[in-house]
Design brief:
The chain has 236 residues and is of the alpha/beta class. Helix content is 45%, strand content 14%. It has a single domain, classed as Alpha-Beta Complex (Spore Coat Polysaccharide Biosynthesis Protein SpsA, Chain A).
Length: 236
């Protein structure tokens, strides 16, 4: 792929795992940016030691805010340093860097602006609650997006610069990744999926997701995003 690609790893309390994720990613992508989301452990130090550039928040602001800061940093450049697209992956080791070429190939072959590395073929290895949550949320968000997508909760993604610069990334926490799918699909950007392998299928032990509160945040965010897109369509 001729595009200039960077990788973004949002990280919170990920000192034991972030270094290995950075090192694996650097074997495939020459620029890795870790956003340390207010960690109180050695997340930032381990990321730097592994070769990443690091942005550190003084307090925890949420995954959406971490990704937004990375997009502003990388997509805000000009000239020869301009980044065309970003791969995002989590810091806990669930997303395998060696799977990155699958996302890049899907983007290149389909012209996708948002590529989701999906895990629905691995749902059977997850706990019953997590499996049901992923399936139900994906169906609900697919309804708002107007496009069937099997796994919308995945954070292993390819984002084009033109997508983010057009639709933005305003939400602060986990809901940001769901809302951007709705905005992208409803604005006519190509959203595609590709199955990926994982380091481990069920991420409950490493996830900072709060089932009740974050599910409510997601529901509100995707509904607002759909309303925004209805307003955009009427004014177009």
């Amino acid at each position: 792929m001729s595009l200039r690609i960077a990788a973004v790893i949002p990280a919170y309390q990920a000192a034991p795992s972030v270094g290995e994720v950075v090192r694996g990613t650097l074997r495939l992508i020459p620029e890795v940016l870790v956003v340390d989301d207010g960690s109180t452990d050695a997340t930032a130090e381990e990321a730097r030691r592994a070769g990443a550039r690091v942005i550190s928040f003084t307090r925890n602001r949420g995954k959406g805010a971490a990704l937004a800061a990375a997009f502003a940093d990388l997509f805000g450049r000009g000239g020869f340093d301009a980044v065309d697209a970003v791969i995002t992956l989590d810091a806990d080791g669930q997303h395998l860097p060696e799977e990155i070429p699958r996302l890049l190939q899907a983007a290149e072959e389909t012209g996708g602006d948002l590529v989701l590395g999906i895990r629905d073929h691995l749902f059977g290895k997850m706990s019953g609650v997590r499996r049901a949550s992923n399936r139900l949320s994906s169906k609900a968000i697919s309804f708002f997006a107007g496009q069937p997508l099997a796994d919308i909760q995945t954070g292993f993604r390819f984002y084009s610069r033109r997508l983010i610069q057009t639709v933005g990334f305003p939400e602060a926490r986990f809901e940001a990744e769901s809302a951007v799918v709705v905005r992208a699909a409803r604005r006519g950007f190509k959203v595609v999926t590709v199955p990926v392998h994982l380091g481990f299928a069920d991420g409950r032990t490493t996830s900072h997701y709060r089932p009740l509160l974050d599910s409510l945040r997601i529901a509100g965010a995707v509904a607002r995003a759909r309303l925004e897109m209805l307003g955009w369509a009427r004014s177009s």
